[in-house]
Amino acid sequence: MRSIDLSPLYRSFIGSDHLASLVDAASRAEKQSTYPPYNIELLAEDKYRITMAIAGFSKDDINIVVEDNTLSITGTKNSDADKQERKFLHKGISERNFERKFQLGDHVKVLAADLENGLLHVDLERVIPEAKKPRKIEIGGRLFDSE
């Protein structure tokens, strides 16, 4: 098993050590589970889409929650009666329960979620407040006017 030394990141994230911690946590969490498979797309400059392959799940089986910059998508299949009636010769479509978590950046909002043809689409957008947007500081200029 290969491990990555993230100590150089801690030195270069001055005042933002939590960013290196998030990268470290994400790399550890990614090793835990690969189900269900997903894509993350960049739709526009600040618009993103997470697409998850969740064949066999309905809207009622899926729970999507955002809490403390963490997007949690949980699928719970409760079909004990259905399992008893069906007899498979080959079962290649996994319908097992899952929980997938995504760490969202600051100011990223979940816009919508849609389930179509066995694919769950979750649309996200990064909305940066005016106070947080970069601003140019002129050399010799003053930030505060004194009277």
Automatic annotation (TrEMBL):
Location of the SHSP domain: 29-142
PROSITE patterns (UniProt xref): SHSP (PS01031)
Keywords from the named record: Stress response
Family: Belongs to the small heat shock protein (HSP20) family.
Name of the featured protein: Molecular chaperone
Lineage: Bacteria, Pseudomonadati, Pseudomonadota, Gammaproteobacteria, Alteromonadales
